[in-house]
Amino acid sequence: MTAETSQTLDRGLRVLKLLADTDHGLTVTELSQKLGVNRTVVYRLLATLEQHALVRRDLGGRARVGLGVLRLGRLVHPLVREAAMPALRSLAEDIGATAHLTLVDGAEALAVAVVEPSWTDYHVAYRAGFRHPLDRGAAGKAILAARQQPNGDPGYTLTHGELEAGACGAAAPLLGVTGVEGSVGVVMLAEVVPERVGPRVVEAAREVAEALR
């Protein structure tokens, strides 16, 4: 902690992170032990976070992340989309295919930003708001690949016909962006993905990641 930071805010954020990392919630005693503070401090932190719907306590007294966090998450999407647009436009124009930024939303992949190329005669219609399971399509599979290699670089993922007949996709995960789990990719009407597309998608994902840091 430095002189410019707030100890109380720091502890509150640590509470949220601890609760986000567990499926079963935590008791006041457990939070007290993990934070290294007394139970009175934890009670005050939880009461404040509950007022903002960021934390809820069940009948057994276990604290869990509240629905207010979801509302904050939705507000993040426009900011992420704005930061990603330059790299997506460049990718779409360079490859001549529809480029997209996809984020995790529960067990699904959610397209939050889409850019179509301006010079092609036809391209895949892919819209922001489109959802699909994480285990189908290049965007979701790239995210899952990054989960399996948390300290490595999974490169890019290629798929064909998993979300739309005759369409193939390439995607690479966003790496090194705290609090954001997603991928950058392209979808095109083709039998196979051209060889240069994979590395170009990886490059675009790195550009987006840098813009979000």
From TrEMBL:
This is Helix-turn-helix domain-containing protein. PANTHER family: HELIX-TURN-HELIX TRANSCRIPTIONAL REGULATOR, ICLR FAMILY, HTH-TYPE TRANSCRIPTIONAL REPRESSOR ALLR. CDD domains: HTH_ARSR (cd00090). Residues 6-67 form the HTH iclR-type domain. SMART domains: HTH_ICLR (SM00346). Signal peptide: none annotated. Pfam families: HTH_IclR, IclR_C. InterPro entries: ArsR-like_HTH, GAF-like_dom_sf, HTH_MetabolicPath_Reg, Tscrpt_reg_IclR_C, Tscrpt_reg_IclR_N, WH-like_DNA-bd_sf, WH_DNA-bd_sf. Keywords: DNA-binding, Transcription, Transcription regulation. It comes from Streptomyces thermocarboxydovorans. Residues 68-213 form the IclR-ED domain. Transmembrane segments: none annotated.
